[in-house]
Amino acid sequence: MVQMEDAEVAARWGPDAVAAPVQGAANRVWFVGGGQLVLRVARPGCEADLRKEAAVIPAAVAAGVRTPDLVEAGELADGRPFLVVRRAHGAEPALPVRAQGDPAGAVFRSVGRELALVHAKVGPVPGVPGFEEGDGPRADTAALVAAGWIGSGAGGWLDAWFARLEEWAAPTRGPGPVLVHGDASPQNLLADPATGALTALLDWGDAELADPAVDFAKVPLRAVPYVLDGYLGERAGDPELVRSWAARVLGRQLHWALGRLAGGSPVLGASWWSAEPGSRLLEVLRFFADAGPLPPGWAGLTPCTGS
Fold first, then answer.
1. Phi–psi pair at 237, nearest 5 degrees
2. 125-148, pLDDT tens digit by residue?
3. CA 172 to centroid of chain Cα atoms
4. Please, what is the Cα angle at 142 between 141 and 147, to 5 degrees?
5. pLDDT value of residue 225
6. Of 3.30.200.20, 1.10.645.10, 1.10.10.250, 3.40.50.11540, which CATH number belongs to 2-86?
7. Spatial CB neighbours of 1, under 8 Å, sequence gap ≥ 6
8. Is 242 helix (H, G, I), strand (E, B) or coil?
9. Domains 2-86 and 103-301 agree in fold
10. Residue of 252, 219, 242 whose CA lies nearest to 105
11. How far is CA 50 from CA 5, 41, 55, 82, 84, in A?
12. Are 116 and 65 in contact (CB under 8 A)?
């Protein structure tokens, strides 16, 4: 199938079609049009996500989101979808460190502003599904205790932490779901290496209708305070609002970390930060253990502090 696909790509887009050096898990990728365009062809089983991208990208571009324009979308001879977008240039940004003035923080503040624009201006888009919330973190914690993944003492401690986070998060719960990007992880961001400016938000295959906090759950927690700062804009000076949003995001990050630890399989050689089952939980630990004071609004969210 790969040889047939390569032949069709060469016949349709010319002999200068060059396979990208880094290939995605859901799509095969080529540079075409003299290197100015990016061609993506869905891998088997990932067709629906690429078709969804073809619907979401024009809406995002129309809203002013910093994402490459869609040039063409269609199907190969075997029925698998493809899309062609303009090529954005840049590199995956480095994660910020906990130090005031860290230049990497500016990139992630820009990510927050882009996500605010997505949530406010993009959608609804036909064909974008809703996010399935499941039973919630406290019910899932009880299930982990019952299955023997964690002890009852640790389960009780986690349940109390989740209860406090839910209480603090309550003031910012919105009236309903919004369209979220779904995977604003560093591998789907491009930044100018010279200036550090965000150049593009890529890959809309995980877009869905969901709680806005879902978009913060795919970002490593070390970068989330910067993303939240950009997302809230002028409202970032309100300490109660920041704490409420921080609790909302931390609760989802911790919940997903526990689910990944219990339900994941070992992954070797993956390019995304949360691929390995333990990575999310270690990221939460690292966020709280790193040197330096926690960002405003986050210090009171540790499990040993009260309201």
1. -85, -5
2. 998 999 888 889 999 999 999 999
3. 20
4. 100
5. 95
6. 3.30.200.20
7. 78
8. helix
9. no
10. 219
11. 16, 8, 9, 7, 11
12. no
Q: Residue 90 contacts by C-beta under 8 Å, 6 or more apart in sequence?
A: 190, 191, 192, 193, 199, 200
pLDDT higher than threshold 70 for residue 99: no
Vertex 211, ends 128 and 225: CA angle to 5°?
Answer: 120
pLDDT of residue 307: 44
Which amino acid is located at 294 in the chain?
Answer: L
- 133 vs 2, 12, 140, 213, CA distance in Å? 37, 42, 11, 12
Give the pLDDT band of residue 100 (cuts 50, 70, 90). Answer: low
Kindly report the average pLDDT of the chain as a whole number: 91
Taking only the tens place, the pLDDT of each residue in 252-281 is 999 999 988 777 777 777 778 888 888 999
Q: What is the pTM of this model?
A: 0.93
Q: What angle do CA 58, 59, 61 make, to 5 degrees?
A: 65
Q: Helix (H, G, I), strand (E, B), or coil: what is residue 231?
A: helix
Q: Which residue has the tokens 């700062």?
A: 229
- The structure tokens listed for 220 are 């490593």
pLDDT digits (tens, 9 = 90+) for 209-221: 999 999 999 999 9
pLDDT above 90 as % of the chain: 70
Look at strands 70-75 and 37-42 and give their pairing.
unpaired
User: What are the extents of the domains in the chain?
Assistant: 2-86, 103-301
Over pLDDT 70: what percentage of the chain?
96
Total residue length of the chain: 307
- For domain 103-301, the CATH class is mainly alpha
